[in-house]
Design brief:
- With 580 residues, the chain is an alpha+beta fold.
- Helices cover 22% and strands 29% of the residues.
- The strands form eight sheets. It has a six-stranded mixed beta sheet with strand order 28-29-30-3-32-31, with no helix packed on it.
- A hairpin with a 5-residue loop joins strand 10 and strand 11.
- The longest helix has 21 residues.
- It holds the Pfam family WD40.
């Protein structure tokens, strides 16, 4: 439920864990003076058949499974247990040739290791040359470090050079001989360059370079377990809380109680239909606007209750769009085809009014540096001003239509607008490059994800489309179930890691979908009029706000607020009339 039927279902976005940085050292990779590989692993054994499988699904090869378990035991320091597993199973962790190669690296037997490299089953000659280059470079540095300059020069000329792998690197290495005090290489000082890395570090780098069928990646089993846990989280339709500890003994599963579904507070200060609302980036404030031409800033108290901080009046027409500055210290408000006002959030003062003679403004947004603003204009252009009102640039043509949505990516490179009824334009104000998203239906509103990777588009035909806008734009998911026939209904990303989609609806309800699966996970009833807009608190995945034609804003959460307060409490719901 919640996904429109397609000829081909959109793929899931799978979150895969990856390890970054240097591989942690295991007891296999220690200094050659302290141990040898033969002391830690059993002697070469006869391999079992590679076609044996374990597990009910018959997809896990027994040989591979035993090998990664053995590697995990060695990595944890259980050397005797690892050797015993190899001996009892008859499945060696590494082949005899690989173990010999690894020991030669630790012992500094460079020529022998290069020769053995060609015997360990590498098919790709490019990998053989790259690994040989790494080994011979280490040989070069250790010779240079031992003051054997002529031998180092010979290695450079007769061994490293003929590989033709990295001629630029060969020239850089020659500087170590010609002028060791002057060369600066890869941002490092000359002293750092001529100092050889540890042989253990070299072996770690070679493990990353060689295919895993030859040398198993260190901590491979841990990586697979972490990946399985991440996949469980991604598959959980209701996961909306930070995970403390996940047990390997049970599967992860959340309940519906993690989704905000209960009205905790009703805000009633607007006297007409509430059209728009948006939480600040830090989640401390909520700004709302309505057909009463009033803008209200609500402050979220530590107890989760909302109280009025400021009421902004001055617009002559209903306010259709609001935009928080990057630091949440200022707010832009745009009247319907009127002017844009900039307000100071702390003092409540209107700092500046932006307008164009004979034209109305229909949308507003901030450049990421907070020093410029952008506005859509009724002549279908987009203007950029500095804070003092000087127009810096104006992009004319079909840049926008009379839809009060304007997106600016957080890197400041692209502006997003609706340039035709069914067409969204992404253009770079510096690069001048343009990218177009074309829908089959009229676009009624859109919103960017906080990471700028996705665009959520609400359409005239009661569908919401999720677009991946990195690189070539592609449609990856559709959501439906909500009602829209007459009004502009806005949707939003939200929840932990923006794992959910929420939207208002003309049936007076709030709809919530799981973003990856498209499943409709919750429908929230309570409003008595069309829900025009929703906003999820970016700092609290359990707090959702909705604005309605019934003149109210509802705050949705997990648990019922029970507090002694001067304001009216009815049926467990806290009604706020601006009191603090």
């Amino acid at each position: 439920m919640g996904r429109a039927e397609d000829d081909e279902p959109p793929p899931k976005r799978v979150k895969v864990s990856s390890r970054k940085g240097d591989l942690p050292k295991s007891t296999l990779l220690t200094d050659p003076a302290s141990c040898s590989l033969n002391d830690l692993m059993s002697h070469p054994l006869v391999r079992q058949g590679d076609d044996e499988v374990v597990g009910a699904k018959g997809v896990v090869k027994k040989v591979e499974f035993v090998r990664i378990v053995a590697e995990a035991l060695y990595s944890l320091g259980y050397n005797k247990a690892g050797a015993r597993l190899e001996e009892e199973s008859g499945i060696p962790l590494q082949s005899a040739e690989v173990k010999l190669f690894m020991q030669q690296i630790l012992d500094g037997k460079w020529d022998e290791s290069v020769a053995t490299l060609r015997k360990i089953g590498l098919i790709d000659e490019k990998i053989v040359k790259l690994a040989s280059f790494e080994i011979l470079e280490q040989k070069f540095f250790e010779l240079l470090d031992g003051k054997n300059v002529m031998d180092a020069l010979k290695t450079l000329r007769t061994e490293l050079g003929p590989l033709c792998v990295n001629n630029d690197r060969v020239r850089e290495l020659s500087l170590c001989i010609v002028s060791p005090l002057k060369q600066v290489l890869a941002g490092m000082s000359g002293q750092d360059v001529v100092r050889p890395k540890s042989r253990t570090k070299l072996l770690e780098e070679l493990q990353k370079l060689l295919p895993p069928t030859v040398i198993i990646r260190e901590q491979r089993l841990v990586h697979l377990v972490e990946q399985a846990l991440d996949l469980q989280l991604d598959a959980c339709r209701f996961h909306n809380s930070l995970v403390g500890e996940m047990s390997l003994l049970t599967d992860h599963q959340c309940g519906r109680d993690q989704i905000p579904s209960q009205t905790l507070q009703i805000l009633q200060d607007h006297s007409d239909e509430v059209w728009f609302l948006q939480f600040s980036h830090g989640g401390k404030y909520l700004a709302s606007s309505a057909a009463d031409c009033l803008v209200i800033i609500w402050e979220v108290k530590l107890d989760g209750l909302f109280c009025v901080k400021h009421r902004f009046s001055g617009h002559q027409k209903p306010v259709s769009n609001i935009s928080w500055s990057p630091d949440d210290h200022q707010l832009l408000t745009c009247g319907v085809e009127e002017v844009v006002r900039r307000w100071d959030v702390e003092s409540g003062e209107c700092i500046h009014i932006y307008e164009k003679n004979g034209l109305g403004l229909i949308s507003c947004g901030w450049a990421p540096d907070g020093n410029r603003i952008l506005c859509g204009v009724t002549d279908k252009s987009i203007s950029m001003w500095d804070l003092e009102g000087k127009e810096l640039e104006c992009w004319k043509g079909h840049r926008t239509i009379r839809i009060s949505d304007l997106g600016i990516t957080s890197d400041g490179k692209h502006v997003v607008s609706v340039c035709k009824d069914n067409m969204i334009l992404l253009f770079g104000w510096e690069s001048k490059a343009e990218k177009v998203i074309q829908e089959d239906q009229t676009v009624t509103s859109f919103v960017l994800s906080t990471d700028n990777k996705y665009l959520l588009v609400s359409l005239w035909n009661q569908e919401i489309h999720l677009w991946d806008i990195e690189g070539t734009a592609k449609l990856i998911s559709k959501y439906n179930g909500h009602k829209r026939s007459r009004f502009v209904i806005r949707s939003c990303f939200g929840g932990l890691n923006q794992a959910f989609i929420s939207s208002g609806s003309e049936d007076s309800q709030v709809y919530i979908w799981h973003i990856s699966s498209g499943e409709l996970v919750e429908t929230l009833a309570g409003h008595s009029g069309t829900v025009n807009c929703v906003s999820w608190n970016p700092a609290d995945p359990h707090m959702l706000a909705s604005a309605s034609d019934d003149h109210t804003i509802r705050i949705w959460g997990l648990n019922q607020v029970k507090m002694e307060h001067n304001d009216t409490v009815s049926n467990g719901v806290h009604y706020c009339n601006g009191g603090t």
